[in-house]
Amino acid sequence: MLAESRPGVDNFTENYFQLFAIPAQFEVDSSLLMARYRQLQAQAHPDRFATASEAERLRAVQFTSFINQAYTTLQSPLERAAYLLSLKGEDPEKVDQSHLGADLLMEQMQLREALDELPRDETSLAALERMREEVQDKMLRRQAQFASALMADVLSDARKSFHEMQFLAKLLTEIEAGEEARLGY
Amino acid sequence: MALLQISEPGGKTSAPQHRLAVGIDLGTTNSLVSASCGQQVEILPDADGVALLPSVVQYRRGQPPLVGTGARAAAESDPANTLMSVKRLLGKSAAEIAALDQYQHYALDTSRGDAAPAIATAAGPKDPVDVSADILATLAKTAEACLQGELEGAVITVPAYFNDSQRQQTKEAAKRAGINTLRLLNEPTAAAVAYGLDSQDEGNVVVFDLGGGTFDVSILSLQRGVFQVLATGGDTFLGGDDFDQALAQWIAQQAQLTEHQDPRHRRRLWDYANRCKHLLSEQDSVEVSYGGWRGQLDNEIFATLCEPLVRRTLNSCRRVLRDAGMVADDIDNIVMVGGATRMPIVRKAVAEFFAMEPLTSIDPDKVVAIGAGIQADVLVGNKAAQDFLLLDVTPLSLGIETMGELVEKIIPRNTTIPATRAQEFTTFKDGQTAMSLHVVQGERELVSDCRSLARFELRGIPPMVAGAAKVRVTFQVDADGLLSVAAEELGTGQRAEIQVKPSYGLEAATIEEMLMASQSHAKEDMATRALKEAQLEATQLLDATRAAIAADEELLLEDEAEQIAQTIETLEASLETGTVQQIRELTEELNRIGSGFANRRMDAQITTALRGESIDDVEQAED
After folding, report:
1. Which comes out higher in pLDDT, residue B132 or B8?
2. Which structural domain range is residue B472 located in?
3. B383 pLDDT more than 50
4. pLDDT of B483 higher than 70
5. Among the three residues B369, B393, B417, which one is the final residue of a domain in this structure?
6. B532 or B320: which carries more pLDDT confidence?
7. Are B153 and B21 in contact (CB under 8 A)?
8. Of B361, B376, B393, which closes a domain?
9. How many helices (H) and strands (E) would you count in chain A?
10. Nearest CA to CA, how far is B337 from chain A (Å)?
């Protein structure tokens, strides 16, 4: 019976949420997700087939790749949001500038300028850390907005929040790159 | 019906016996082999009772190679034919080797091409793979003598930072040594396994591995026997040798030695510095006397001298913490690996950084081999596999060259493996019918800064306007961290694929040729070995197929069952009398016929994997 309700496993088209048997929504219980992920891996990993036939080993590699991809997607808030949008038939790749709020764009510019003005040595690490926390804070707020918009099925709002999350994620990457450069990695 | 007759092949599916499998730490300086001896995994000593095999091989004309302690003793009298530290040469081109100071006294032989350099010795050209193979064969012999039986296979460890060609070459070396590689295992993962299983710990573990020439740091999450590598990083140009050098410089300064010393004096000074360093691991200060100068050296001075080096290790720690999305507080244990972690100044700095004492109860030189031995035991099925699993990651990003010599990353670093990712590309010119694909590995944006792994071409694209063709490039990394790449034009289904080869870009024929050449001194031996390998592979497949049928008979289709039964019979018969070619062909045939059945079994297994989870669990998750 269960096999019939999980139709996509054989060709890896199954919905990631179904794969881990968790509800398809933005809020995810990360420890449950991890537990389910490891449970699946424990069954399917190529190490379980170390002495099996080549066909079985190949199948194991393909299936665990799929499980890994699914887990990576659901684990990252940004990728999870994009995936949820795509399940609703939206194309998350299509970014429309008009979706972004003017206030956010303004803040972005100010933050970017501030980032550029920081001295290029270790003295600015503390300032960078503060900036990171600030952006992280905004990110959490956008995520909450996205979650409720999706729950209410107001897709235009969800899309807007998603695009703002993308923007903030890019900014976070830049801040982290700035930190790494100053730490001399 | 026929099925029942198949599943009882002379009672071969009876209770599995203990299978012999070893763990091998193929090190730069020393190598070790371990195996499970009853309850515990132990390092296997050679006939003289010695556990550490120096990774040194001396090649002599008309004689078998001398491996280990004997070879190391010959290093001074016969430097040109005594090959040491070849692990550093794996995957390197002739130009790269020529640039390394340490290998200046070897005569490079590039007759097989710049990409596959060998070293000219009295026994002919030997490439790093040959040398590694001779070391591995010696370890296998030690193990077989110790365990009194034939090895089923080995888990061989590699640095987490090894790129694809270095991994391929390690596997190739095992093949040349006649060893079945069960798995290439990252060294830090092996170390965590060695500690983890004893204590049944849960939590996050940092593996801090400072060897002679390289530094690796990894973060693993441990939970109920699952070891998941979350991030790995390090510095391939930092190791214990750098601490010797820092100390040597200080001594030279104190003793007011001239800047330009000849290599022999420099070597002497380095050896002296190395001895001082070792003493400082046992006592807090040492009397230094060199070149007429006498003085006192303590760990405080040593720490100041090496502060930049230690800081680099800590920076790498910060970086992997970040890659894993953690802070130092999230770490529950630190495992120390590599002889250089014996230095108190290193232990102290690590303890301060993570605010806890690192684990040092297992000998840092043996911990990797022990972990590999445990994993080998699990892989051949001697241990209850259900509660033990390793999930590893790619250490370096894998990508493809795009316009303007830029790299498009397809699989980013620290992706859990196995991994498959696809990306679509398009044509650049009108009417373009072929696409050249260049596969690279590394973190940099420019192709020239990354390591080139392979080039191949996709031909037969129908002529279209630029940008109209859709080519999907798929990267697949298996559990050993080895890459294969496939390209497909989506409109026509035209395909091309490549398994990234050892020594980047070598044709299969060249490798075969190298294999022949490397074993020319033992041709008859090779023919027997090839037959034995084919027989072994066939037997493994026969066993696996029978076990599969016994377990999931109901998943077989009727005519499929008969086909499989027939092929099993023919293959079985050919085992004794068939040629290598016949056995191989039949093995392949059985693999092919059985693939549908294998797929169905896997799907059935997966669909039952989560069956234990009731709907209640899902609802609780929603709360």
Report:
1. B132
2. 398-520
3. yes
4. yes
5. B393
6. B320
7. yes
8. B393
9. 8, 0
10. 22
> Are B610 and A9 a contacting pair at CB < 8 A?
no
Indicate whether A135 and A60 sit together in one domain.
no
Domain boundary residue among A10, A41, A75?
A75
In a domain, B178, yes or no: yes
- For the ranges A106-110, B69-73, B520-524, the lowest mean pLDDT is seen at B520-524
Q: Which of A179-183, B218-222, B257-261 has the lowest mean pLDDT?
A: B257-261
CA distance to A58, A97, B40, B594, per residue, from B567 (Å): 21, 63, 41, 10
* B68, burial (CB in 10 Å: exposed 0-12, middle 13-18, buried 19+): buried
* Averaged pLDDT for residues B405-423: 88
Per the CB < 8 Å rule, is B416 touching A42? Answer: no
For residue A33, what is the domain's CATH number?
1.10.287.110
**CATH number, domain with residue A104:** 1.20.1280.20
B183: chain A residues, CB-CB within 8 Å: 47, 50
Are residues B487 and B556 part of one domain? no
Catalytic residue among B46, B87, B164, B480: B87
Confidence of residue B582 (pLDDT cuts 50, 70, 90): confident
Instruction: List, edge to edge, every strand of the sheet that includes B451-458.
Output: B406-411, B398-402, B435-441, B451-458
Distance CA B295, CA B142 (A): 46
Tell me how far apart the alpha carbons of residues B176 and B172 are, in angstroms, rounded to a whole number.
Answer: 6
Query: Cβ distance A142 to A185 under 8 Å?
Result: no
**Shared domain check, A176 and A103:** yes
Q: What pLDDT shows up at residue B407? A: 87
Q: Which residues are within 8 A (CB) of B207 and not within 5 positions of it... i.e. 6 or more apart? A: B188, B189, B191, B192, B216, B217, B218, B219, B220, B334, B335, B337
Encode pLDDT of B549-563 as tens digits: 888 888 888 888 888
Domain count, chain A: 2
Q: What is the pLDDT of residue B526?
A: 55
Does residue B173 contact residue B514 with C-beta atoms inside 8 Å?
no
Contacts (Cβ under 8 Å, ≥6 apart) of A35 = none
Indicate whether A92 belongs to any domain. Answer: no
Regarding whether A55 and A13 lie in a shared domain, the answer is yes
Asked whether residue A80 is domain-assigned, the answer is: no
**Do B356 and B503 lie in a common domain?**
no
The yes-or-no answer on residue B187 being catalytic is yes
**ipTM for the whole complex:** 0.79
Q: Is residue A87 part of a domain?
A: no
Same domain, B384 and B488: no
- Partner-chain contact A9 B603, CB within 8 Å: yes
Share of chain B above pLDDT 70, in %: 87
Residue B106 has pLDDT above 80, yes or no: yes
| Residue B105 maps to a domain | yes
Specify the pLDDT at position B297.
94
Task: Tell me which range, A49-58, B188-197, B371-380, B528-537, is most confidently predicted by mean pLDDT.
Answer: B371-380
Contact at CB, B391 and A45, closer than 8 angstroms: yes
Residues A101 and A146 grouped into a single domain = yes
Q: For the domain that residue B82 is a member of, what is the CATH number?
A: 3.30.420.40
Question: Is A89 domain-assigned?
Answer: no
Number of domains composing chain B: 3
- The β-bridge relationship of strands B389-391 and B226-235 is parallel
Best mutation target among B602, B615, B618, B620 (most A Cβ atoms within 10 Å) is B602
The C-alpha of B429 sits at a distance from chain A's nearest C-alpha, in angstroms, of 25
- Tell me if B112 is assigned to some domain: yes
Give the pLDDT score at B201. Answer: 62
Mean pLDDT by 10 residues, chain A (185 residues): 35 80 93 90 85 82 91 94 92 68 76 82 82 91 95 90 89 83 66
- CA of A102, closest CA in chain B: separation in Å? 31
| Pairing verdict, β B53-54 and B40-43 | unpaired
Supply the range of the domain harboring residue A157: 97-183
In a domain, B275, yes or no: no
Task: Write down the catalytic residue from B134, B152, B209, B244.
Answer: B209
Beta bridge partners of B495: B488
CA B559, CA B155: separation in Å to the nearest integer?
38
